[in-house]
Amino acid sequence: MLAAVLKEANQLVLEEVPTPEPGPGEVLVRIRACGFCQTDYKAITGRRKNVTFPLIPGHEPAGVVAAVGAHVSNVKEGDAVIVQPSGYCGLCRNCRKGLTHYCEHAYTTGGDGPEDVRPGSFAEYTLTGANTLYPKPPSLEFEAACQTEPVSGAWKGIIQMSQLTVGEDVVIIGTGGIGMYCLMVAKAAGAGRLIAVDVSDYALETARKLGATHTVNPSREDAKEAIAAILPEGADLIVEAAGPIEAVNLMVSLLRRGTRWNIFGITTHETFALDGGLMHFLEARMDSSFGTNSLAMERAIRLMERGLVRPELAISHRFPLTEIHAAVEAMGSPERNKVIILP
After folding, report:
1. For position 189, what pLDDT does the model report?
2. Roughly what angle, to the nearest 10 degrees, separates helices 177-188 and 148-155?
3. For 2-146+310-342, which CATH class?
4. What does each C-alpha distance from 280 to 50, 232, 238, 263 come to in angstroms?
5. H or E segment at 95?
6. CB-based contacts of 192, cutoff 8 Å, min separation 6
7. Alpha carbon separation from 298 to 37, 66, 160, 164 (Å, rounded)
8. How far is CA 110 from CA 47, 67, 99, in A?
9. Assigned fold of 152-288
10. Would you say the pTM of this structure is higher than 0.85?
11. What is the pLDDT of residues 194-205, one digit of tens each?
């Protein structure tokens, strides 16, 4: 099969590799669409260091079952499916508490987090466990369905972890792919004023179309002052969905009493300072969110199937697998939203 193999940082090579065969409990999926995540881009460009080479990136896939291994009964050849990239055993202590993303035997197909990183979906086929598959609703095109994992991550962060309620004011710092989905989930959940913050006017224009009530560009104005003018009493929830440490520092600077904040976008090991006494008297609550779980996947599929979240509206670029290097270039451009690979 054709696959994009990351040999070393900045050495992404298209080559033919053996097509895997499913063992017991495994399924081979013919990939129809796979989202290009910022963490993939960081791995390819060398900014993410927890990478074992060689790696086939890509962890936002949807496709069609091509073959099933022994003891698989939940799917059959020809089924259209959505793939959860974070595999889990279902038997350990954490799995039995519903915390499958804490699984003691976790693996990921193309992503990061656990030590067991398996080939991902910037390829024609992906091998994964049968318990990571969800039926694709007929109403969802593959390009939208492949975004279930990031949409589920947005739901998990905004709703499950940070407990957004109707009418609350929200600031989302960073409106790339995941930031757009956080924005859409917040909008669907009934956010009051919804402020999108980004250095890209292109991204902010998309954010306005997707429901942001206000936008702020830190490269053009003082972000803290601009947000204070819109929300004099401060935000109820601040989501950092950008990645750079500057975004985290901006989030911290916006705290007021009772603020909830979610460290969502930064995945690199960088430090920031907190005033312990101030945090004590503000009673600010810090959440964070990584990965996904089965509940979040189910909720994301429902949101998309009901039309409450429409990931296709955030897609700006589509590339065949044979043009993966053009896709990498697009990922580095400020004039893009979500990039999709079509193997």
Report:
1. 97
2. 60
3. alpha beta
4. 34, 22, 18, 19
5. helix 93-96
6. 167, 168, 169, 170
7. 20, 23, 13, 18
8. 16, 20, 20
9. Rossmann fold (3.40.50)
10. yes
11. 999 999 999 999
